[in-house]
Amino acid sequence: MPDNNENFYAGHRERLRAKFLDGKLTDYEKLELLLAYVIPRRDVRPLARSLIKQFGGVHQVFTASVNELVACNGIGKNTAIFIKLVHEMMTVNYKYKLRETPIFHNETILHNYCRMVLGGKHIEELHILYLDKNLQLIDDEIHSTGTIDASSVYPREIARRALELNARSVVMVHNHPNSNNSHSMMDMEITENLQSVLRGLNIELYDHLVVTNDTVHSARQLHMLD
Description:
By secondary structure, the chain is α+β, with helices and mostly antiparallel strands.
């Protein structure tokens, strides 16, 4: 027979499910309910709060690596993989939408995808999104990792890959892990260099997006590509 603790946990989780259906769960309670499905016989409230405190938010928990999650007290490999699987499924959904719909129809989808891929990461990554003639996603490829500067961006390689994929436009995306600032002077220089190389091949640099935690800064919206 279940002991009093198991009865309490069962009742508490049922209340969480009811609150979820009513749209009344807080962020940490949503994470708690999710963890309850993979850690069924333990009070996961302290764990949910601890993860949010350690990583800085729910979104950052999901963008953390498996190794970073496993390093947290109370998270085993199975739980870490479960968390990352949820994150991957959300990313797959956004990528599917980008492949099916021109990005200018709803740029919120593009920005949400970039948040999912890069928001909360502790190192810089530079991604190139290659788009077809209808501005639909062909592929998203990592161009470089580490500190993004002029020496780690290779416009001619990006141009060559765009030609291989028959891309007509590209979107450059990178993150600022430790800053909420928009495009730096170096970012603007990189933007100008890439735009110049692509223009000679009749390929458009559609945008250069910078992800800072939950914010996406658009060079296009800032009129940096005019």
